[in-house]
Amino acid sequence: MKIGVLGGGQLGRMMAIAGYPLGIEFGLYDPTQDSCGGQVARLYNAPFEVTDELKKFVDEHDVFTYEFENVPLELAEYIVQRKPLYPGKDALYYSQHRLREKQLFVDLGVPVTRFSKVDDRVSLLDAATEVGIPFILKTTTLGYDGKGQYRVTSEAELSELADKLFPEMGEACQETSYAGVNEYIAEAFVNFTRELSIISVRDQVGNCVFYSPAENDHRDGILHLSVAPAPNLSDEKLANLQGYAQKLLEKLNYVGVLSIEFFETEDGLVVNEFAPRVHNSGHWSMEGCVTGQFENHIRAIAGLPLGVTDNRSVSAMYNLVGHDVDRSAMAMHDVHVHWYGKDIKPKRKVGHVNILADDYLQLQQKIDDVDALVK
Amino acid sequence: MKIGVLGGGQLGRMMAIAGYPLGIEFGLYDPTQDSCGGQVARLYNAPFEVTDELKKFVDEHDVFTYEFENVPLELAEYIVQRKPLYPGKDALYYSQHRLREKQLFVDLGVPVTRFSKVDDRVSLLDAATEVGIPFILKTTTLGYDGKGQYRVTSEAELSELADKLFPEMGEACQETSYAGVNEYIAEAFVNFTRELSIISVRDQVGNCVFYSPAENDHRDGILHLSVAPAPNLSDEKLANLQGYAQKLLEKLNYVGVLSIEFFETEDGLVVNEFAPRVHNSGHWSMEGCVTGQFENHIRAIAGLPLGVTDNRSVSAMYNLVGHDVDRSAMAMHDVHVHWYGKDIKPKRKVGHVNILADDYLQLQQKIDDVDALVK
């Protein structure tokens, strides 16, 4: 079997590495010529359009998946008409658009924060009343790591933002828009105590397995650390997280790994967003679980039985963002450095360190030791 | 860093898969066009000679290693004069020649069975007296899995073999020789209770780590099952096995993974042979240990710190030889199937199954369950 992955970054790269021991071959498709996945699998290098190279890529593989949710729908459509694509087009349709995604969660009974659609000056001002200040305004499509987002914490900031985005008679201003997107979602601020994420997997006959939810910490808007299982998570919340994930998996007739982020608040869980793919907050599972997220994603889309997701111990994933770690970390007990084969640049994810320990106390000590070796 | 591996079979393949997470790139060199390693890394396809393709292969990689011990010495010499080659030429010099290898063990104080050189009719008949009947005659070079070997269990068989190999005035007969090799070693039969092997690793600054010795069972002369740690191994024998391995590592100024096979007899340990490479009897370490043999081999030759070799549990490696295993084995707890991407043919190693368990009793049950799924 040959699997084609849309996207040749570190996620596609790690899918290939995890799938090779299963006897599966991989090709990656990416517009960037030096995509790091190209170091471990054949890279088809062309724009994300229905190019001749894409047609060749589709011809030469049996099953398709993607490493990022912004795959153009027409490209997904081209593939779906010819070969299996997992998790599929529905997952893309919802995850590419923050309003559709939010409404889907509402329909499934998954708790969301108050939100409102904004596409002109009037709806922006109305949103401030409906969801309340403070709120955050996000483009409905594109944007990540805080890009295309605005915080509104006062009436003054609201007027300022209205003038910036919709200055002329309430019309959208192309120059100040992010990536040309003029449709927004206003979301009420969530006062959360921590972020949790859950990785789940569904196979082609409907079996679902779940990884332990992780607790995630960010630095400068980028994931810094995930700890799993999330400490002090009540059985009730664990059951809720799995239940919400299962609803979404079934609603989307999903095949593969699904990631959902939640906020834990004093009033309970509130969903943030989902990603129809393997996720940075699940990288700890590579050594931390009997079967890692990458392998289980490949098993699911290849029609193979899912692997057991039991934890080997408590685990952490420490992201290497714009920094490397000293090689001496590799000699630490049950510390596993994964490098993505990328040059180091500010804010760029160049690798991660998986850390296993007997208990949370030892885990924290090892995290501190790794932290001291990051340079 | 780019590592070039001589040989593109499953061992080279698994080296690449283990090295990719370390950010290392791989190329494999193999005369066979459809070598299974070519599915996961670039394959340089040409004979094992100093070809133009070999020169290109050497130019395009930084460090070299091999997946089999019969690398022609002139080819090793070509590389050594230009780039680092690990474990190096010395390891090949001894492991390619059974007499040199045996003498090396004698010099290092590692117990060997009685042996004698045979290269004509007279020395064959003398050997029968020196080492005693029964004995086994092996070509000094080449041969594996019983090829190029003869058992002599009586005077009649001795005469027969003498007539076959050295019929004319004691001269060697080319037609009946194996692969044109006319030099032999006669080895006294070893009445062993079991075969043990130990995998060890030495890095570029002389640090050595050891894996738990494994107990190996063969079927039709091919490794069938390895169990690690070898059950009921005395502390004294464990210390001896590690001590012998360390002597050999240091004598050869070795870098990388070294495998040594021993017979356990009523009178103690007797060495069988060593292989200067990752070894089938160490495959259980991929999931069974904190750091597997393939990753540690790559760490060693890449100049990185060695990883911890502690066991995660008790483990077994079940070889898939000429048979496949039902996909349902993948759903078993802590059972990991590794396929090599090869077509199934009689006696061909097409994959292996790593099995982890809490204790030997559970391990045996899981081995039996896997066995029932092999078809």
UniProtKB/TrEMBL annotation, chains A, B:
The keyword ATP-binding applies. Its EC number is 6.3.4.18. Residues 102-302 form the ATP-grasp domain. Pfam families: ATP-grasp (PF02222), PurK_C (PF17769), RS_preATP-grasp-like (PF22660). It is an enzyme of class 6 (ligase). Keywords: ATP-binding, Ligase, Nucleotide-binding, Purine biosynthesis. It catalyses: 5-amino-1-(5-phospho-beta-D-ribosyl)imidazole + hydrogencarbonate + ATP = 5-carboxyamino-1-(5-phospho-D-ribosyl)imidazole + ADP + phosphate + 2 H(+). One of its GO terms (molecular function) is 5-(carboxyamino)imidazole ribonucleotide synthase activity. Pathway: Purine metabolism; IMP biosynthesis via de novo pathway; 5-amino-1-(5-phospho-D-ribosyl)imidazole-4-carboxylate from 5-amino-1-(5-phospho-D-ribosyl)imidazole (N5-CAIR route): step 1/2. Transmembrane segments: none annotated. ATP binds at residues 98, 138, 143-149, 187-190, 195, 218, 272-273. InterPro entries: ATP-grasp, ATP-grasp_carboxylate-amine, ATP_grasp_subdomain_1, D-isomer_DH_CS1, PreATP-grasp_dom_sf, PurK, PurK_C, PurT/PurK_preATP-grasp. It comes from the Bacteria. Catalyzes the ATP-dependent conversion of 5-aminoimidazole ribonucleotide (AIR) and HCO(3)- to N5-carboxyaminoimidazole ribonucleotide (N5-CAIR). Homodimer. Belongs to the PurK/PurT family. HAMAP family: PurK. This is N5-carboxyaminoimidazole ribonucleotide synthase. It comes from Litoribrevibacter euphylliae.
